[in-house]
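Deviations from the work plan: none for this task. Representative record:
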Amino acid sequence: MKHMTRKATRHISQNEGLIFEKSSPGKAAWKLPPLDVPEVDTAKLLGKQERQDLGNMPEVSEIEIIRHFTRLSTWNYAIDLGMFPLGSCTMKYNPRVNEFVSRVEGLANGHPYQPEKISQGALRIIKTLSDCLLEITGMDAITLQPAAGAHGELTGILLVRAYHQSKGNARKKILIPDSAHGTNPATAATAGYAVENLKSNERGMVDVAALAAQMNEDVAALMLTNPNTLGVFEQDIHEIAELLHAKGGLLYMDGANMNALVAKARPGDFGVDVMHLNLHKTFSTPHGGGGPGSGPVAVKKILEPFLPKPVVITKPDGTLAFEYNRPQSVGRVRAFYGNFGMFIRALAYILANGPDGLRQTTEDAVLNANYIRKGLEGVYDLPYSTPSMHEVVFSDKLQSQKGVKTLDLAKRLIDYGFHPFTMAFPLIVHGALMIEPTESEPKEELDLFIEAMKSIAAEVEEDPQFVLDAPHNTRISRLDETQAARKPVLRWKPENAQ
Amino acid sequence: MSYPTDRRYTKEHEWITPDGTIGITHHAQEALGDIVFVDLPKVGTEITAGKTLGTVESVKAVSDIYAPVSGTVTSVNGELATAPEKVNKDAHGAWMLKITVKNPAEMNALLSSADYEKFVSEEAGH
Amino acid sequence: MRYLPKSPADREAMLKAIGVRSVDDLFAPVPPEFRLKRDLNIPRQMAESEIVDWFKLRSKENGDGYTSFLGAGAYFHYRPVVIDALVQRGEFLTSYTPYQPEFAQGTLQAIFEFQTMVAELTGMEVANASMYDGSTGAAEAVMMAVRITGKSGAVVARSLHPEYREVLGTYATHQGIPLKTVGFAESGPVDLKELQQAVSDDTACILIQSPNFFGTIEDVEAIAEIAHQHGALLIVSIAEAVSLGIVEPPRAADIVAMEAQSFGVPLGFGGPYCGVLATKDKFVRQMPGRLAGQTVDKKGKRGFVLTLATREQHIRREKATSNICTNQALVALMVNIFMTVYGKVGLRELAKQNLAKTAYAADQFARHAKVRFTGAPRFNEFVVETSEDPYAINSRLLGHKIVGGLPLKKFYPELGHAALWCCTELTTRSMIDTAVGLVADSERAVRSMKEVEQEVAR
């Protein structure tokens, strides 16, 4: 190893095959209680519908299952192990009390169709979280139904469409800045809109003059992330909103970067008409290796009639209920009421913080990003010098002169015990390194990160090939993604046993 | 790289021979990197000059293939379904589809091998 | 604030390093008129013990201590404790989508195993890493069929979960997909004659659920034949995954859209759950959602990566197969562990117990009330028609801490006083006997009331 790293060290990790390779007839990890009703003749009950064989399902014991998944888990990196500086992903600490309260019996075992009379606890959680999110965003009404951020986006754009339709014309297109996340254009297309690109200016912000030129009565909405994917606050946000509103368009805000604003500024105050939140980013619900998420959509009054049904209402006697009679609703976007388990966790986070805690959280998130920016300025190229909020975007311009690209820097960072930054995005920065530390990092961890990044930059100067061959300390080296895509092997079969 | 003179080229990096055989250029495969999948139309499909006729995919990118001229698909190179890497190995040999050309005059609007080479080198200069 | 790891001195030092006087300077890019100058009006900061107490109170108000006969797309099965012991490991709980495969092999291999087991159980060739839930999965499957066939119409069974149909309706409206609905026969399954008439050469797919919303197992092969005659695909939605332990999987289908909640996922008042799509190899490039694939590293060692990513939004943007971004990884891991615990033999035995409980309960109910849809095999749900409004019966049951079957009137007005009852391996014989007894009382009361009326009339 070239440079010593203070954060990480090697340790033994266990090899582990696929569960199917441990399977052997007669092993079992289950036991059912004795049947207290008469046995049934399955052949008689099911006839030709009776299944004869469950194929290659495994047969293993409990200790093997515990070891199998525990060994697999040790091959993962996680927030619990250290900083996860993925830009726009807001990988913050996932408090354990969130997990604990989500497993309290009456909440974990609540059936979505149990009578409202015995669902008041769940309804109260939905209502309290909704009220908190409305206060945080400065909006008027909200749905918690969408299952993830992209699902929230889709719901939001469907609301936009329903609103315009109620005025007699659904309009044709959605404007999306070139710095936007890939889900934005995919969402607009899924909702049946054409996508029109909006160029960023030299400061990395929406070009207001370009917007004015592109804005017309065909535009249903502008989808804007604020702060945007460069971590830059769109200072002209109010002017942008006014330009849209003047021609009857709406301002959609992607709330991916809300961690920069909570308790400091409210989208509802600066002209946003509709926005989604990511409970798994800003509100600490776990990413869990890729989900579940939760993507509430908050709106201004004008969009309220169109919200997915049901919505929660307070009855005259003070009890809560679901309201289904919503004639203008866009309909349902998911069965039941959304990812309720995530509502519990997000609310537990908000209660643990309170107004003062949330403000300090946002301030620390912005402080951490700026500290990293200062620490790495000059070592890595900073394509936009506009002030950073909660994340900072560098590029691989200096290192690529030695043939080392952002991906190689990322792989080398793994050796230093950190998860890489976000890459290949935003599209307006070639070879981007998008870094979002979140508030969860102590100064010591930030210092180690800065040290690691500087050390890698030095390695690029001294021995670029060493960085190109990274990672060196992981269980496996770089994987052949071309082979995986050319000849996809997407499941285990007995013949490819190892 | 020299580009064969027996065919014409588009600015979107496709080539077409006078008998209507179509592929993508060496420059295109180089820009895409390792090609993992080629999505082509069925035999009998009408294609229109300048419109998308299929896609070619690498691990992390997708690129549209545009019809150099209009025509009807008469044959598709089935080999590429299982061996897309042939496009990387020999882009000018690994044809993708054959069409009956609707209007041979459309060919005249395309680039010659020398013009294409110049176009590619100018593009790289940016 | 206990989640924030900085002392005031740390903050001071960092501000100094950055070269600003106060943290407010860092918020200068936000125009002053939009800066919030007051506290948020939300509850004050609570201690951990207070948070636990608050949610325990909510739990008490939420049916804690009731036994339930509800199913209808959300099923109460036993969850082996190893599930929570394992999914709460920080390396699973607090990791990200495995875009950096070198140190996300745990998640990737688990997904690969999940895909394998789902494909095995559904009788399909390939499965994805999961979707939001069964309802959105079914809608995505319809859009997938539209892409594959190049046609646009979808024919949907009325016995598909009503809320799944609503979700599909929302998606279809904006995709320009016309939907036709086909009813159910008196005996329970899809009305095949009506289906024949509804399907045409413009149909992209038929979407059914099996076991359907009423618990009836559909004749998948017959329906597949109708679909394929017209060049349409057959999509089968499965809401009760445990059925796959003993019911022949829909092998004749082209796409299976499953809700896997039954496999170790808490009811949790409706979510998060775990949708999953499975299909034939030839359709995989049109399938939405993440996929893990096997490959090798530079030294030839087996490893796993997310693959065929070019289908997805971050590359294709507006041309993506779907705007879906997350999957339900942690919930899929629960499902994965559940499938591993029960395995090849346990899943069958588990399903058999469900079948036995349901058979017993349906027989008992049939002695006092009318059990509908008896003409075809069923899994763990059945429809009971009573003389009295099931809402009234249920409110009496509630007094005994029993949640009765789901009244169907809301979704199917034509079914009148019918309710959908569900039994699983956790439903005890004494629960069943108590509920049957109370329903029998209601039936007797209505009967004697009628007799009194008739007497008075005489």
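Residues 41 and 47 of chain A are 10 Å apart (CA to CA).
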